[in-house]
């Protein structure tokens, strides 16, 4: 094989966005080694510029006629482009909200950003992985970096405890997932590429049925852990409560998006011939996640734990799109994750701001906040109402698209359950809003009564303010102006061969339901 032929088969330009992220990561580390703590004034902005450049590179690859790279081990199709963009954007917003938080804790900001961008690299490679070894290496890169981020505040015993729990449960999950894909490797006759595995399994004898069922269950276990689906959610509330809040924000969006990306690729490709079986399992996961996530959230007294159970419930909602198995279903998944990025990160930005000023995240301590901090109250209220699906915010249109896709696909029970549990979720979101806005002055909490003077000129506060305003604007207008985003998601489905070979015939959501476009 000559060099030119090898270069064409490697097609390294498919990982140009990841190359930009890696270069930015190395630049942050080198500058930090040279200039020390002084680099904290501008390394966050270098990281954000690098991440936005990676998103731009992803956009330029949209109509790439040769999306396969590295001998078929990486697929840069529009499906992966959307998920990689969501992961990169979630990291950029996370960096904005991290500056003040990390500096106030007395730890190194550059090291935090470097580990965060390593996790981003793992998530982006996972979203485009088309081969079993690439899948596992990318998954472990994301997981190990997440463990380090969870325990980054080493002086905080809660952070140490959260990291230990996450490490132990995550390692077990990775071992189970690895066993599942190793079974898949053996049963497919030594194939590692997903499309070749799919062909082999489709023609496999009946004697392999039990082995394939075990491989499917073990693989789904690893995926369910990554997306925090019940009953593999046990780590989520404790890790969310004990981890640094910016880390929780990234895990709730970036890590979850990577999990859904590999779920789609693995299930519709390698397990395409076992659609009925994995539909049954994911239906159970969706039901349990929507019910337990929303019901248990009602009893939470910590804002971070409430958002943890909220993220479990959101995973159940997104799974409806996966189970629909249609163009509309996959498009609604991607659309919902795009809007979920901003409304969830916006909520966590408000939690960070409140905890920086008061040192607590107890829901009861938010009483009367409107009278002391109107911007924070407005931002948190809009993000929570959007998560609950209140029109005309982005979350409402996201849920409408998901439920309509599920209804068209015949998932009537799941959609009705989703509607009922959405009503339940509105209660605990509005409870927080009511506490902030409606409380009389005499009912104001002691923490809010002693609320410090709002000073945006403190080091690291401007990025936090920018992140809040961006999330607030996007969450407010993305619902009303949702057509461009949904067109993007719909085009990604139509232009991804892996999804076109898996979708069933059904009317597309774009042709049936369209949000008003101003």
TrEMBL record:
<feature type="transmembrane region" description="Helical">
    <location>
        <begin position="133"/>
        <end position="152"/>
    </location>
</feature>
<feature type="transmembrane region" description="Helical">
    <location>
        <begin position="109"/>
        <end position="127"/>
    </location>
</feature>
<feature type="transmembrane region" description="Helical">
    <location>
        <begin position="409"/>
        <end position="430"/>
    </location>
</feature>
<keyword id="KW-0472">Membrane</keyword>
<feature type="transmembrane region" description="Helical">
    <location>
        <begin position="464"/>
        <end position="486"/>
    </location>
</feature>
<comment type="function">
    <text>NDH-1 shuttles electrons from an unknown electron donor, via FMN and iron-sulfur (Fe-S) centers, to quinones in the respiratory and/or the photosynthetic chain. The immediate electron acceptor for the enzyme in this species is believed to be plastoquinone. Couples the redox reaction to proton translocation, and thus conserves the redox energy in a proton gradient. Cyanobacterial NDH-1 also plays a role in inorganic carbon-concentration.</text>
</comment>
<feature type="domain" description="NADH:quinone oxidoreductase/Mrp antiporter transmembrane">
    <location>
        <begin position="129"/>
        <end position="424"/>
    </location>
</feature>
<keyword id="KW-1133">Transmembrane helix</keyword>
<feature type="transmembrane region" description="Helical">
    <location>
        <begin position="247"/>
        <end position="268"/>
    </location>
</feature>
<comment type="subunit">
    <text>NDH-1 can be composed of about 15 different subunits; different subcomplexes with different compositions have been identified which probably have different functions.</text>
</comment>
<feature type="transmembrane region" description="Helical">
    <location>
        <begin position="306"/>
        <end position="324"/>
    </location>
</feature>
<keyword id="KW-0618">Plastoquinone</keyword>
<keyword id="KW-0521">NADP</keyword>
<feature type="transmembrane region" description="Helical">
    <location>
        <begin position="207"/>
        <end position="227"/>
    </location>
</feature>
<keyword id="KW-1278">Translocase</keyword>
<feature type="transmembrane region" description="Helical">
    <location>
        <begin position="42"/>
        <end position="62"/>
    </location>
</feature>
<keyword id="KW-0812">Transmembrane</keyword>
<feature type="transmembrane region" description="Helical">
    <location>
        <begin position="82"/>
        <end position="102"/>
    </location>
</feature>
<comment type="similarity">
    <text>Belongs to the complex I subunit 2 family.</text>
</comment>
<feature type="transmembrane region" description="Helical">
    <location>
        <begin position="280"/>
        <end position="299"/>
    </location>
</feature>
<keyword id="KW-0520">NAD</keyword>
<feature type="transmembrane region" description="Helical">
    <location>
        <begin position="375"/>
        <end position="397"/>
    </location>
</feature>
<comment type="function">
    <text>NDH-1 shuttles electrons from NAD(P)H, via FMN and iron-sulfur (Fe-S) centers, to quinones in the respiratory chain. The immediate electron acceptor for the enzyme in this species is believed to be plastoquinone. Couples the redox reaction to proton translocation (for every two electrons transferred, four hydrogen ions are translocated across the cytoplasmic membrane), and thus conserves the redox energy in a proton gradient.</text>
</comment>
<dbReference type="InterPro" id="IPR010096">
    <property type="entry name" value="NADH-Q_OxRdtase_suN/2"/>
</dbReference>
<feature type="transmembrane region" description="Helical">
    <location>
        <begin position="164"/>
        <end position="187"/>
    </location>
</feature>
<keyword id="KW-0874">Quinone</keyword>
<dbReference type="InterPro" id="IPR001750">
    <property type="entry name" value="ND/Mrp_TM"/>
</dbReference>
<feature type="domain" description="NAD(P)H-quinone oxidoreductase subunit 2 N-terminal">
    <location>
        <begin position="12"/>
        <end position="99"/>
    </location>
</feature>
<keyword id="KW-0813">Transport</keyword>
<dbReference type="InterPro" id="IPR045693">
    <property type="entry name" value="Ndh2_N"/>
</dbReference>
<dbReference type="Pfam" id="PF00361">
    <property type="entry name" value="Proton_antipo_M"/>
</dbReference>
<feature type="transmembrane region" description="Helical">
    <location>
        <begin position="15"/>
        <end position="35"/>
    </location>
</feature>
<protein>
    <recommendedName>
        <fullName>NAD(P)H-quinone oxidoreductase subunit 2</fullName>
        <ecNumber>7.1.1.-</ecNumber>
    </recommendedName>
</protein>
<feature type="transmembrane region" description="Helical">
    <location>
        <begin position="330"/>
        <end position="354"/>
    </location>
</feature>
<dbReference type="Pfam" id="PF19530">
    <property type="entry name" value="Ndh2_N"/>
</dbReference>
<keyword id="KW-0793">Thylakoid</keyword>
């Amino acid at each position: 094989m000559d060099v030119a032929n090898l270069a064409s088969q490697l097609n390294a330009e498919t990982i140009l966005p990841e190359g930009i992220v890696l270069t930015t990561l190395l630049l942050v580390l080198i500058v930090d080694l040279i200039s020390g703590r002084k680099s904290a004034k501008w390394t966050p902005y270098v990281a954000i510029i690098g991440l936005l450049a990676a998103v731009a590179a992803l956009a330029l690859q949209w109509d790439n006629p040769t999306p396969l790279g590295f001998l078929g081990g990486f697929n840069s199709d529009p499906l992966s482009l959307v998920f990689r963009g969501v992961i990169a954007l979630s990291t950029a917003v996370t960096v904005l909200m991290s500056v003040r938080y990390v500096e106030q804790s007395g730890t190194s900001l550059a090291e935090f950003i470097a580990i965060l961008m390593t996790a981003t690299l793992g998530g982006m490679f996972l979203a485009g992985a088309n081969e079993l070894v690439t899948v596992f290496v990318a998954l472990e890169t994301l997981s190990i970096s997440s463990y380090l981020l969870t325990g980054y505040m080493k002086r905080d015993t809660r952070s140490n405890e959260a990291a230990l729990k996450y490490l132990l449960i995550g390692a077990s999950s990775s071992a189970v997932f690895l066993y599942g894909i190793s079974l898949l490797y053996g049963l497919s006759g030594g194939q590692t590429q997903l499309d070749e595995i799919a062909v082999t399994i489709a023609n496999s004898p009946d004697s392999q049925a039990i082995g394939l069922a075990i491989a499917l269950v073990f693989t789904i276990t690893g995926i369910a852990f990554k997306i925090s689906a019940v009953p593999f959610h046990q780590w989520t509330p404790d890790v969310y409560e004990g981890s640094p809040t910016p880390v929780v924000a990234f895990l709730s969006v970036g890590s979850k998006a990577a999990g859904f990306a590999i779920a789609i690729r693995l299930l519709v490709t390698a397990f395409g011939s076992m659609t009925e079986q994995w539909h049954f399992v994911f239906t159970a996961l969706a039901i349990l996640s929507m019910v337990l996530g929303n019901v248990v959230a009602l009893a939470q007294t910590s804002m971070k734990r409430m958002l943890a159970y909220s993220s479990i419930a959101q995973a159940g909602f997104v799974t409806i799109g996966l189970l629909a198995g249609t163009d509309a279903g996959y498009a609604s998944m991607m659309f919902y994750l795009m809007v979920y990025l901003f409304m969830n990160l916006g909520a966590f930005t408000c939690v960070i701001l409140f905890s920086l000023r008061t040192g607590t995240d107890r829901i009861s301590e938010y009483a009367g906040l409107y009278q002391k901090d109107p911007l924070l109250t407005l931002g948190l209220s809009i993000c929570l109402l959007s998560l609950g699906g209140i029109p005309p915010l982005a979350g409402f249109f996201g849920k409408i698209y998901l439920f309509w896709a599920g209804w068209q696909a015949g998932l009537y029970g799941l959609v009705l359950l989703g509607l009922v549990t959405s009503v339940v979720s509105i209660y605990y979101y509005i409870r927080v809003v009511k506490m902030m806005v409606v409380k009389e002055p005499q009912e104001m909490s002691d923490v809010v009564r002693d609320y410090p003077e709002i000073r945006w000129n403190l080091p690291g506060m401007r990025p936090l303010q920018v992140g809040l305003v961006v999330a607030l604007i996007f969450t407010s207008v993305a619902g009303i102006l949702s057509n461009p985003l949904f067109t993007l998601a719909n085009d990604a489905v139509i232009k991804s061969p892996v999804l076109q070979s898996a979708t069933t015939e059904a009317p597309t959501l774009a042709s049936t339901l369209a949000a008003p476009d101003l």
